[in-house]
Design goal:
three-stranded antiparallel beta sheet, 2 helices, 15 strands, globular, Trp_RNA-bd_attenuator-like_dom, AIM24 family protein, AIM24, AIM24_sf
């Protein structure tokens, strides 16, 4: 019985975070190196790991999260191996080496608790849809895991004058140093986006990357938010 399943066994741990296949995250947990993860994302664990939903540190930061699109977080602590997933979505692991990343909250799976993070409004978009778009910005030395509905592409903006345009419903994350602005399109509305109204795109320019998933989110991220 064991032999046919051997190819699915977890590989030896080589990093704090790594993929187990395309749809699962494996985290090497150690005491003192806590993790913040999406509530409900734990699918298995080995060792002794404790969970605290919506800890005080998260409540303090998330009190300014006015959009309602943020996923509740839990603090994971202890020693062992932790496995996380999000309804079969692809998992993307990023090692921040003193850098930062701006993440769509619905695509945030887990990150090291010691990283600096907060919720911020994306500048340049408020005039297109009420209060605009809010994202989670994470920076420092540590690991972040994102989810993508399908295998994502990573677009290098290259630092040139040309802009990269992305449907906001397909956007996963981007380098926070990129310049962002909104673009409204009338003629292309039957080709871009899913709605029959005005088509919105986000234009990125500067030096950095944009992560795009091959599936549009089920929510309208540029609707008016109260």
């Amino acid at each position: 019985m064991n032999q046919p399943l051997a190819g699915y066994a977890p590989a030896p741990v080589t990093a704090r975070m790594e993929n187990h296949g395309n749809h699962m995250l494996k985290v090497a947990m150690q005491t003192g190196n806590d993790l913040l993860a999406r509530v409900g994302s734990m699918v298995a664990y080995e060792g002794f790991i404790q969970y605290e939903p919506n800890p005080p540190a998260v409540r303090q930061i998330a009190k300014d999260w006015m959009t309602g699109e943020g996923a509740p977080l839990m603090k994971c602590s202890g020693d062992g191996l932790l496995y996380l997933a999000d309804y079969g979505a692809n998992v993307v692991v990023i090692n921040l080496n003193g850098d930062g990343i701006s993440v769509n909250a619905t695509n945030l799976l887990a990150f090291d608790a010691h990283l600096t993070w907060g919720v911020e409004r994306v500048k340049g978009l408020a005039k297109f849809a009420g209060q605009g778009l809010w994202n989670t910005r994470i920076s420092g030395q540590g690991w972040v895991a994102l989810t993508s509905r399908g295998k994502p592409i990573v677009v290098d903006c290259g630092g040139g004058e040309d802009e990269t345009y992305v449907d906001p419903d397909a956007l996963v994350a981007w380098s926070p140093n990129l310049k962002v602005k909104g673009k409204r399109s009338f003629k292309a509305q039957s080709l871009i986006g899913r709605g029959s109204g005005e088509a919105y795109q986000m234009a990125f320019s500067g030096q950095g990357i944009v992560v795009v998933q091959p599936s549009e989110d089920s929510t309208d991220r540029l609707r008016v938010r109260g």
